[in-house]
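User: I'll paste a sequence; please echo it back and then give the predicted structure.

Assistant: Echoing your sequence first, then the prediction.
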Amino acid sequence: MIQELFTEKYRPQSLDQTILPSRIRTAIGDGKLHQNYLFYGPPGLGKTTLAKVLAKNYPTLYINVSDESSVDVIREKITNWCSTISLLDGAEQFKVVLLDEMDGASDQFYKALRATIEKFAATARFIGTCNYINKVPDPVQSRFTCINFDTISKEEEKEVMMEFAKRAYAIFGKSGITISKEALAEFVKRNFPDMRSIVNKIQTFVVQGVTSIEAEDVKKLNYSFRDVFELVTKSADAYENYKFLMTNYSSKVDEVLQALGSELPEYIRDNHPTKVAKIPQILITVANHQAQRVHVIDPCVTMLSAVFNCQMILNS
């Protein structure tokens, strides 16, 4: 029985183990915290991993902002943590505040954070991560060096994808699974740029007792939200679908919306090839809902609307 999550077992512990394009390695430099950093981009690209690596040699306060976004967190946790540092300790004695999932913060949190960052500029460094940089107010962004983790060119994409393939191949080998070159390329391509998803799916293979993988096997992999995709492609009871989505995915709105745009087209191609022609309509619908996401009172309504619209398109 596997008791350790592969995402933790194989999480890089040092800067040289991280998978980063040359652009980001240059921006990070020697890895010392000369400034505050805000890492942004799609899930699974190593933002939190790099943040933890950079903070490793410093006393660190970790806060998942999506869970702790009240002003009290600033006043009681962050301020108290930073206040214990003496100015005589020098730069090497900085304390670090690691703010994971910063795009989940409240407006009050952001306003209080701005003043706090400036107050402790001589004694503390802040490292933030987020998926959606547009959700972080400009006055907060200006207090960080913002680094985009998404690939910005075809050359950079190829560079990172090759590193993903090398890491995946190594983990397959350590797990006792042989994988063909064609299967590895297809596996990485389907899951790029989410390294977390790649590692999770390798663990799924291990749990299932798989010992060898060919290209055709990759097509049978479970998608992150396969149950949602199955719902989308079937004409079922509307209220039952509503209950299912609210019960299982009300806290994963952004992830579902992203999967509808990135994974659903692949799922349709593999499982419902006669409906491939409807993919453009699906993508336009999902794009509109993703744009609306930041302006609605209840994000769950956006998710429900996106799923039901996709369902109507595919079943029309």
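The chain has 16 helices and seven strands. Residues 226-315 form one domain.
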